[in-house]
Amino acid sequence: MRFADLFCGIGGFHAALHQMGHECVFATDIDKHAAEVYEANWGKPGGFDVLSDIRDVIDDIPEMDIICAGFPCQPFSKSGAQEGFEDQTRGTLFHDICYLAEKHRPAVLFLENVPNLVAHDNGNTMQVIESRIQEMGYKHWWKILSPHKYGTCQIRKRVYIVCIRDDLVGNFEFTFPKEQHHDLDIRTVLDKNVDTRYNMTEDEICWLDMWEEFLNNVNTETKLPGHPIWADCFQGDEELPGELEQYTKAQLIEIGREWARYGWVQPVKGAMKRDEMIDAINLPSWKQDFIRKNRHLYRHNRAFIDSWLKKWRVLEMDEEGAPIIPVSRTKYEWQAGPDSRSNWENIMQFRPSGIRVKRGDYFPALVAMAQIPVVGWLKRRLTPEECARIQDFDVDGNLGDPFVLGESDQQSYKQLGNAVNVNMVRMIQERIDMYLDGVEDFPALSTQITLESF
Fold first, then answer.
1. CB-based contacts of 264, cutoff 8 Å, min separation 6
2. Has 73 been annotated as catalytic?
3. pLDDT by residue (tens digit) across 158-192?
4. Which fold has domain 2-182+396-453?
5. Which member of 40, 228, 257, 336 has the lowest number of beta carbons within 10 Å of its beta carbon?
């Protein structure tokens, strides 16, 4: 079948559908670097330049049987029942998908997005999408899936939406691939000889050694805390205020003054509106809960934590008044379970919110930001080629010509963080092809899943 690859990135949909013999007739993306990588691997489908804004070329897109789209998540209009669902989506990129679907009437719409799409804008976004799909004459199914349940060592939850044109819907339901149990081994994607530029810096190793000592000396008789550890919240004695909405403006000014030493609190001024004061204090209930838990952790490990703070100068300032250790590195989150007590046998990410440690049997989701997973026992980051493997791009040429990444590591990390997982797309497309061929490996037709049943 012929497919159009919208918001195509470097071609995750293309890689999957190409393996199955489908033909790409058009591809578009507004990112210059991603378009260059796409063309280096797939050429110019239909003879069209990949680098383009869909809104500028939408009437040039030829007929297709499948629309593939990992579309951006945008809020829709909420002006009410007086507007149709088409009007509510107007001005969004999802509207452009719908325009093409109504113009060409392809058999299939195959959509992908982050799982938060389901709850985005208090569920309004997903409700409008589902209603608009039905309005256009398609039956649809959706499910949140992750490749680590299908043999790829990356946890990457995404919502996949499969839409079949009404006249092609059989008397049985479409179903997504069944989850499978796999003993994942991340070593299968790691290269033995890697350039030293991927090594951790001396500062990063120092920060991990600092937290390694912490791991080995807190809660030695019990389990490690599962909540984020914030070193600047150990010794505080400020009263936790609870819900800030209950206070007057004068009381909020006093609360802001009391909590002013914390980096997340902005100055609270009398000229501010009450909601602005609450936003500046930035103490939602979940944050107060973490502060409470960190104080509890400190009280039960006071002697060690006091010496640890002093030894590593965790909260001290340099001569210019800047933190000796960046604030984000004084925050730490252990998600590696009860069977480990070492950073160096797990996978880590240096995130803006702190250092996060996860179990060493699969990688956390790649993201477009600079949070490249670090392999603890190798003390280095994943290379772009290794990141491509956990996105199931064939950089090793096992299925033919190897997939070629761009020259910039930074751009490759960004592109792979934005990409769809090739193996997930391929397995779902296999099910789509079976469904259209009438293979009754599917349950009998039943009531459609809706957002309310999620």
1. 282, 287
2. yes
3. 999 999 999 999 888 999 999 988 788 899 999 99
4. Rossmann fold (3.40.50)
5. 257
